[in-house]
């Protein structure tokens, strides 16, 4: 979980807050013209909801999943294109076709309680982005039962869209946060880079209660955190994490507790953070070491159950007092 750790905006910084995509959002920006951009921002959020919310039965993604239509808009197309990119980069660890399994296990809108192993195995043939295909603004599926779910990338994409909108209005200093996924540019009200607090992965803690690191971010980079310590279901006393391994169809269990990723944009950061939770510590470290544009802060438990942290050199430079 991420916590905004920068100073409170001064009166020449504008702050817009609200609810979207089942979570909260917070946007802070400096505009020398002192414009109130809350209405156009709200319009952007509503358009994204109408495009890719699986909780909206009339959304474009819901119509595609129900086989009412195979037509998609430019927003959903951009997200699917980005999803294909991360799917290929991560050997399929990030996969937007896991939706039916997610819902069958109990993390979707139906709130099913329990894990039916037979049902999960029955759904496995429907998982795999190699089974969906973009043809212009149409999404073709090899099997009509295939459904897509872009929740693991939509919030990162949303903050990027809003960031681009602010830039189109000539705004050079802003921070956009939706559900903990963030993009930032320029400086905060103190004239320094924006600073984000990273929470220690503790189940019962409130956001911001146990900040274990503060990370600076600017230049349009995106930051996202994924973790298994807050989102889980409990069945017969057994806790199951919300991160589904597309290869097995079951919740992934490994030593990685949370993954915070800084990437050139929040869309990529959001998707990679999810993929890291599937792949685990060693694979994620190797992935980051091979990239000079990705930074990561990985919290894991050792063999004795102690909290440990790994971060690359780039992330170490971002750590602030």
Contiguous uncertain segments of 5+ residues: 1-10
Side by side, the strands of the main sheet go 2-3-6-7-10-13-14-15
* Sheet/helix structural class: alpha+beta
Radius of gyration: 19 Å
Report the β-strand fraction as a percent range.
25-35%
Mean pLDDT: 88
The general outline is globular
> How many β strands by DSSP?
16
**Major sheet details:** 8 strands, antiparallel
Question: What's this, in brief?
Answer:
This protein is α+β, with helices and mostly antiparallel strands and 321 residues long. It has helices at residues 38-52, 60-65, 74-89, 99-105, 117-123, 151-168, 266-279, 281-289, 313-318, and strands at residues 2-4, 13-20, 23-30, 132-135, 138-141, 173-178, 181-185, 194-199, 211-217, 222-227, 232-235, 238-241, 256-263, 295-301, 307-311, 319-320. An 8-stranded antiparallel sheet has the order 2-3-6-7-10-13-14-15.
